[in-house]
Design a protein that fits this description.
The chain is an alpha/beta fold. The protein is about 35% helix and about 15% strand. It contains twelve helices and 15 strands. An eight-stranded mixed β-sheet has the order 3-2-1-4-5-6-14-15, sandwiched between helices. The chain has a seven-stranded mixed β-sheet with strand order 9-8-7-10-11-13-12, sandwiched between helices.
Length: about 375
């Protein structure tokens, strides 16, 4: 199969879909890899490294799109890339379609076979291609939140950990999944007061066993959220419904009750966000202030640390990519329920139930199309 990888064009996105080691794996399996020149530079990978691994370098992205059977990316295709869609092309990347009707329509119109990293789900319900970026985003959320608590950015002007004789910051984490757990780990490590909320009592028990007296666990209800937000200095929104739109737990009516200069980091923003007051921002202009609360809603947070993110991501995605390339998407789906769960669009049909529900569109079971 002809595999392609182009330079990401999203604002401040420096990750790349394939590392030279990945290229070597595809080539060893008998595939041909086409790389856009400079695609890996933002993550510290040179063109010479890709050539040494067996890739063919192509001068521009359009030619790569036209040459390949499967395009491996990091972030969702942007509007400038929609003209490259064509029937039967496999696009293997993060898609986040529930928050992006335009992209959904473009993929369907182009009859693309779109495989989303974020909905690939194993039998144990784990999300192996989403997990590494969730780990990074969770840890980054505290790092970024601590920075924007500084007065020069509109924050309260407090140090997350405090110093002897001063109060520590109160960190509230909405959601105890991979993002929330990793945010919790960093916040506890920095010495903040941490409260984490989740709807799953068993998960709260697991978190309590992990962190013990260092955290407060609470059942996620509107009442509990409203209570803890009144005293919060930093709030992390880390709620996820695989493939679906994120529920709005952080309501706009809570903002006037919060401290002036409190910070809200909405990690779920690429799935629509868990804040009613959230809208997507970029690394160039990451924050805005509404009702005195600083909002950080960057849609590609891990792009700030591309070397770590690229290696972590491709460690997870390579396995499934090789299966798709080796068998073709259809046979790969028949052999692997995990890969089948990643197919969001197939030749003009919407094959992810949560995405279909988010847009009010017709859903088609993939198995009826294979």
């Amino acid at each position: 199969m002809k595999i392609g990888c182009v330079k990401e064009i999203k604002n401040n996105e420096f990750r790349v879909g394939l590392t030279p080691d990945n290229v070597r794996s595809y080539v060893a399996a008998g595939h041909h890899v086409y790389m856009e020149k400079g695609a890996g530079a933002g993550s510290g990978f040179t063109d010479n490294e890709y050539v040494d691994a067996g890739a063919s370098l192509i001068d521009n992205a359009g030619d790569v799109w036209s040459l390949v059977n499967m395009m491996v990316k990091v972030k969702e295709p942007l509007e400038e890339e929609y003209p490259f869609f064509r029937e039967g092309l496999i696009v293997y990347t993060y898609l986040h379609l529930a928050a992006d009707r335009a992209q959904t329509d473009a993929l369907l119109a182009g009859k693309v076979k779109a495989v989303a990293y974020e909905t690939i789900q194993e039998e144990d319900r784990s999300l192996p291609c989403l997990a590494p970026m969730s780990q990074i985003a969770g840890r980054l959320s505290i790092q970024e939140g601590a920075k924007y608590l500084e007065k020069r950015y509109g924050g309260e002007g407090i140090l997350l950990a405090g110093v002897p004789g001063t109060p520590k910051a109160n960190v509230v984490i909405l959601g105890g999944g991979t993002v929330g757990m990793n945010a919790c780990k960093i916040a506890v490590g920095m010495g903040a007061n941490v409260t984490i909320l989740d709807v799953n009592l068993r998960r709260l028990e697991e978190l309590d066993n992990m962190f013990g007296a260092h955290i407060q666990t609470l059942l996620s209800t509107d009442s509990n959220i409203e209570k803890v937000l009144k005293y919060a200095d930093l709030v992390i929104g880390s709620v996820l419904i695989p493939g679906g739109a994120t529920p709005k737990l952080f309501k706009r009516k809570y903002l006037p009750e919060m401290k002036d200069g409190a910070v809200f980091v909405d990690v779920a923003i690429d799935q629509g966000g868990c804040g009613e007051s959230s809208h997507v921002t970029t690394h160039d202009d990451p924050v805005y202030i509404e009702d005195g609360v600083v909002h950080y809603c960057v849609g590609n947070m891990p792009g700030a640390v591309p070397r770590t993110s690229t290696i972590a991501l491709t460690n997870a995605t390579l396995k499934y990519g090789l299966q798709i390339a080796g068998s073709g998407l259809e046979d790969a789906c028949r052999k692997s329920a995990a890969i089948a769960s990643g197919v969001n669009c197939y030749c003009g049909h919407l094959t992810n139930r949560n995405v279909a529900a988010a847009h009010g569109c017709a859903y088609t079971d993939l198995s009826t199309l294979l």
